[in-house]
Amino acid sequence: MREPRWLNDEQAGRHVRPYAITGGRTRHSQHNFTLITLVVSRHDHEWDHDHLEPESMAILALCRDRAVAVAEIAGQLDLPVSVVKVLCGDLLNGELIIVQAPPALSEQPSVELIERVMDGIRRL
To the nearest whole number, what is the mean pLDDT of the chain? Predict the structure, then answer.
C-alpha cells in the first residue's frame, strides 16, 4: 500500500524545513528587509562560521563578490523570501553582512521631477 501523497518525505521536508531553518520565526524582530534590499558579505576571515546554518553560509558565499538583492538570494538558493529575510537579519546582527536598503518614499524624487528631467534630456 502506498503512503498518501502528503506524507511524501520530499514534500514534508519542503514544508517543515523553512520553519526549522528560522527556528519558527516568520520575520526578524529587529530588521525589515524589502525584496530589493542589497546584501553583501563582509570579507573578515577571522569570523567563526561553524555555528551558522548551511543556508546562512550559502547566503554569505552568494554575496561575497557583489551586492545581491534579497529576492535574488531567495531565487538562487530556492528558499522562501521570508526565510532569507530572517537569516539576513541574523547575519546582520552578527556583523557578517552589510545591507543597503532602498531609500524611503520621502527621500525618493517625485514623478514630476523625473518627468521634467526626461523632458530636458529629450530637448538636448
Answer: 79
